[in-house]
## 1
Amino acid sequence: MGNSQSPATNPRYVSAARSFTHTELDDLKSLFVSLAAQSQSHGQYVSPSVFQAFFGLHGPLGNRLFDLVTQNRKDQKLTFEDLVIAKGTYEKGSKDDIEEFIYRLLDVNSDGVVGSMGGDLKLDRIGVKSDLEAVLAVMLDDISSQTNSEPAYRPHEDIIESFLNAATFSMTNEGCAESCMSFEDFRSWCSLLPSVRKYLGSLLMPSDSGRPGHQVPHLMHLENIDSSMIIAKREYAWHIGGALPQQELEQWNLLYHSAVHGLSFNTFLGNISSNGAIYV
């Protein structure tokens, strides 16, 4: 019926399945069976809510990823074949395949273009946040472990604005009120923001697996320092960590603060010497 095909005759499934070992396919099948059971679908499909809960996704980014994984059928049903095809592209594909998937993921409004209206709470033509603003808001809420559905809740406004200012929108399209982000614009943006690229490139890994792009270093400082005096917030540490290897993202210790150690340059040098990698 419709455009459904059996796994044996679906060329996209056959091609994607070849990129996995037998063990990996068995593991994917076990995962699908478990999620389908939670979806109460008699083993036939995974529901959007179960999919998003397992992968730790929410909001427009979670909705968009589910649509992409289910090949935009809009039937609210993720099949085993969908899962294999998506992970085969998103995790096993070529660099171009993976980045094209992520680029399409940014189009949370599903209008075929990646746009940003910028400015102060400007809305796009259908009355929702611009694609990039919506994606960044979900990401930063996730990283800072804050969520709030109130319309006026915008704790990351300055960070979002900075990230948007780093982007180029060189493509003109009648679907955009302003210029849109081309695929090459997206690639250039990711080269400037490796933390964003890492985050968006690991969303189909289980949320409890320490997936790349989601780690925030544990920021350690003396108990007598008011945390409001610390410049290195979780979001800033996450952003810096995007350009660092995994082993340097476990714990960061505050070695010097002028309010505690004074303004002596010699003290500053003494505190940071012989302490391995230092971030100033």
Note: Residues 118-128, 146-153 have pLDDT under 50 and may be disordered.
## 2
Amino acid sequence: MSSGGGGGAFRPYRHLRTLTHHTRAVSCVKFSPDGNHFATASLDKTLAIWSTETLTPRIRLVGHTEGISDLAWSSRCDYICSASDDRTARIWDTQTGECVKILRGHSDYVFCVIFNPRSDRVVTGSFDETVRVWDVVTGKAIHVIQGHSMPVTAVNVDRDGGKIVSGSHDGSCKVWSVQTGECEKVLIDARGGPAVSFAKFSRNGRFILVGTLDDTLKLWSLQNGKFLKIYQGHVNRVYCITATFSVTNGKYIVSGSEDHSICLWDLQGKNMLQKMVGHTDTVICVACHPNTNMIASASLDNDRTVRIWVQDP
């Protein structure tokens, strides 16, 4: 078997469970930072919080008036923020399921969302072409960043909480200061290249994984602005598919695909180690458990399920 980044032979993931709950496409799945729960968001306008141990839904979050595209956990797992086509982001208490804050100001779909590590700020990206930084306590926008000329498809914050990376359908990927809202670096220029569909900092904040709608993921160096690795073999031409890093057993890149599969690459070697099949529509989102070798995948309207995949010890 192919060798992974963990030193030994790569152990394939196997399908553990298929979870049915939402009545429309499942747009997002994210594990809580402590790994005890995961949350799902759907075009059915609801979110659900699940127990990782029992793989059963614990609470439903109801209040959005249109479909939900993204969700983010606060660092202490006490809040979730959701991004919706109803042009709002909502902050939810994960214990009670109550909506404690509605973030209003975007003039079009709110497509992506992330908390900063201190969880006193929320960053959102929208089809109105802006990135907004919000004060969690007041619910007011601190910065309205107008740096893209088409919908913003991705936002992420580095582990120190000082930098935002944003991606857009305009083909650009830019890094911003959380404190000032000023542009610090243009990682990818909007010069007629493919739409940027995804962007995420590595755990150490030194690299950015960027997805583009030409079936490509690239790992970029933040320091010198050059791409170091390229990952291919998945299909991504239409949807903003969420990829991620897997670091619990070796170092891997994991992504969904429009051919209904989940693809897993060796981060260093760039070679695809496994293609997981079973979903019946585009796999729009994948998430890796923070502590154990578990992957959750979410799929669109012809499927509507979340699948859980595990590595045997």
Note: The CA atoms of residues 263 and 275 lie 5 Å apart.
## 3
Amino acid sequence: MEFDLENPFPPSKEKIPSLFNIENDHMPSNTYIHSLVSASSSLLSIRREIFASILDSSLGFGPFSSYLAINYMDRFLSTHSIPEGKPWILKLVAISCISLALKMRKTEFSVSDLMNGGFMFDSVTVERMEMLILGALKWRMRSVNPFSFVDYFISFFKFKDQPSIQSLKERATEILLKSQNDIKLLEFKPSIISASALLSSAYELFPMQLQSLRDEICRSTFVNKENLLHCYDLMQDVAMEGYESVLAFESSSCTPANVLDLHCLSSSVSGSQSNQNMKK
């Protein structure tokens, strides 16, 4: 069955509590963020290079495959050191993370599709690195990620009409895709990142509903209010870094996964900028 970022596991009555209970198991190690910002560590430059390589090599496969590959990359780097002075290893890690993500999403491809010049690897070499990554991730490939919690937090939204919900979800999706580049967000649980992206979306599109939505989410027994508000402040910086779409538009159908109504978004952004006092 194809892996869906929004629904990592089969439906069940205990789906939501289960996701909150196990989300820590699908995060980078606790020391990862500290290693990234350490002045004596080369890990940040390593991450940047692999990150860029994943985006470059996964063009044409859609943003959600890239997102999953980067999720694998962060979890792998947090538990496995990369030797310095061997740039080919960084490329191999990137190719292997993409390959695993595409396999999880049941996407047809060959290893040669992921090569775009530079270092070249055969399928055997890639498979060996995949096994190393799988071991580091403890074979937890159905990642519990921020997209897994979007529908849960949207249920707190006051408006129940489908167009409003769809607009909110589409903008939150774009913000989440952009947020992977910000290492400061790696310290937060996927659920907190999800809620923060949704609040940032509401701030832009439905500013008059922001306060009530934030209050409702903060009342959830699964949410740490202090962490949420801290993450939300950081997420606002991500959201404000331009409003161009990072989604690969591969269809004209209106679905949360692949469409953003840019005309409506630009109109709402211009209106929301006059509501700066709604941020907190």
Note: The chain is about 55% helix and 0% strand.
## 4
Amino acid sequence: MELQIPTPVAILSITIILFACISSSLSSSLSPSNLHPLVVDSMIEHLNYTAISEFRLLNRRRILQCSNPNPFLQINVSGNTTIGNEEYLTVNVTGVLVPADSDWVAMISPSDADVSDCPLNKALYVETGDLSDLPLLCHYPVKAQYVSKDPDYLSCKKKECKEYKDGKCAVTTCGGTLTFHVVNIRTDIEFVLFAGGFATPCMLKRSNSLTFANPNQPLYGHLSSIDSTGTSMRITWVSGDKKPQEVQYGDGKSQTSEVSTFSQDDMCSNVLPSPAKDFGWHDPGYIHSAVMTGMQPSTSYSYKYGSDSAGWSEQVQFRTPPGRRIK
């Protein structure tokens, strides 16, 4: 399919039709009366180049600090400030004076990431075909949820009295609770409360930062065959430690890992840098790979990988493939 450049009349017609479709499908916070014309133009242009969703349009939004006089507002995470390799974190939003369906929480990593807009990123995004005048987020949130996912939020069932007058409650606030599934991505994280939905967001409050208990922990082991004999298997894993580690398997056998990684400079790019170098980038850590040899086909073995300094994986059971039959 060829991309054709429409005439000015056609652009106007397409704009009206597409905006009507967008307005009917998105929340009331995205109504024409609430959107700046530049935001509308960006949404329509962006439809041509990527799968459409409110969250994926977020990187085309100005991120401002909300004018928030609310002294009661808080966002915090239940539990410890250190996180294990996989946890479900409970994020509590409290002290909200007027809950709105456009309030949302983003998980940001690293915690010192700039979540304001970055005008210089515009040049980096030209490669995707989006020529909108809006700037880009400096860093893309890892994940996000509307606070209204908590069914008690908009109805203000979690009430707290913050001020009393003459023995009666004078100021009542509302709250909401969200659960985020978090895995060890090595860099520290924080949660940011936004108002205005994904279309016109502004920052309200940031939580304290949380760190992973062991950023170097060897994780996410993957087994693969390297031939059809059933006597060798490759194990690949990720760690925050660049020093070689090893896989221990069978009855006292071990193999040392080869280590590789990639950087922003390795991301695909033409004359202009790709967005993969910028707001969508996250450090991949170090990729370790080792080949377990000297095994028998159709035989059960166990292995673990890592090192004394970085930590070890759990013991994992597996069975080698049957191997090729020679006629």
Note: Confidence is low (pLDDT under 50) at residues 1-43, 45-52, 132-136.
